[in-house]
Amino acid sequence: MAQRGYEPALTLNFNYRNCTDYAARTLNRQLGGTTTDIRCNWSSIQSGNSDHAKDWRQGAINRGKPVDNMPKRGAVAWWGASHGGGYGHAIVAEVRDGGNTVVVHEYNGSNTGRFGTRTLMRSGEWPQASLHIADLPDAPLAGPAAPGAITVLTHGSRVNLSWGASAGTADYQVYRDGLLVATVGGTTHLDAHVLLGQSYNYTVVARNSAGISPGTVKRISTNFEAADRAYLPTKDGPAQCGRAGGQHYQALVCTMHTSTGWSSVSTGHGDWEYLADRRWLPNRDGTVSYCRRVGAGGQIMCDRFDGVTWTSSTSPNVDVGYPEDRAVLATKDGPVLCGRAGGDNYQVLVCTVLTSTGWRSVYSGGGGWGYPADRSWLVNRDGTVSYCARVGDGGQVRCDRFDGTMWTSSTSPQVDVGYPDNRTYLATKDGPALCGRAGGQEWQVLVCTVLTPNGWTSVTSGRGDWGYGSDRAWLTNNDGSVSYCRRVGTGGNGLVTAWDGGDRGQCGPERVL
């Protein structure tokens, strides 16, 4: 008996029950074809006489079909050679929520030769491209509208999320890296199960009896302390710092445990300013800074506490970049605000740093911002700043480095970037690295790609165990190496895989805790 979606008499010159065969059959039907009137087969999509999915993207381009990263109903969701054991993967997508979630109908998704469906969210695994060969008209949306924009306050151990309400909603679901972490009735959630120095993709959807809304997505990094209240390491001892006073007398206060006891010092009357862009920073000299945008939004003000007194400095009007991916960081030269600037046709970066001699603002040359779901600012171990992102068809990594005066850039060759959940950028002793899970269920491995002083290197671990999805994380160790830690077995064991990076290019032994 033929399985779902198959017409036994239909021959399209692809291997039976491969992803390409089922996708071509679906496209044939969408184009109005039948078993006798074939309108899509191998010759309609092949490139370089290849029947592998990895070549479909070029085949579509060769035939003048649109190729982009915008899924549409009936479009082909495509992955290149980083998937499918090097052969790629091609499936037909059903878009239910306007583009942030797709339902996939596929054969051979896990090399089983069987039919299956999956729901993919933009905050989790996502196609590397959409091929618009035989798109269908958009289906009407059901359920509530998408929640409003997500606002976050990030800390090393917690992320405080809030979002705009959606009318007629019964509840909201919060996903972290594609994993459901909460169902709430209100418009806030405190996620206390995060770690310092990680990158996470959050998606919030609204639900009612009519259906589920499109997802609202926010990518965050726990590389800094949000400016509500923060615990910080200083040269004099641990400190708790926060906003104090009230709306008519806005002040700051830090309480520090020094070698001689407790000390608490407040600023004078000041300005807390914009909620979305204010951060506490532990500076590299052991002092503390509170930085934020002020005025009309184009100036930066930093208050610095040295353990005894507060000082303040405000920049002239500068380009602070777009709000998404804007970051406030502690560098070797002082606190810096960095962001994406320019436009779609001239994509640049800009950093404005408060140095010992005053403010300095420097643009990069034209380049590429990279994929929104995979880009991050890092403070390197030498105190410089890097902006790293996936570029090209998604299988390359580009890092732009700012040393306080000038920018340099480097792009990797094609590499395995791993799966999107738990994929993260890390500052290692050898340079910025992108690390993730790779392989498949039957061969679970890890991969890190690092930009060293001698160029790019990519290293894959031996076969192991990814661990439980709710308890796994990448860490940068004090010596600059990288560890991937997770719960394994029945949940009572911890497993650590260490990577020493650089040209030594080896993964250390796994240790069960």
Automatic annotation (TrEMBL):
Listed name of the protein: Peptidase C51 domain-containing protein
Family matches, as InterPro entries: CHAP_dom, FN3_sf, Ig-like_fold, Papain-like_cys_pep_sf
Domain Peptidase C51: 1-134
Taxonomic source organism: Lentzea pudingi
Domain of life of the native organism: Bacteria
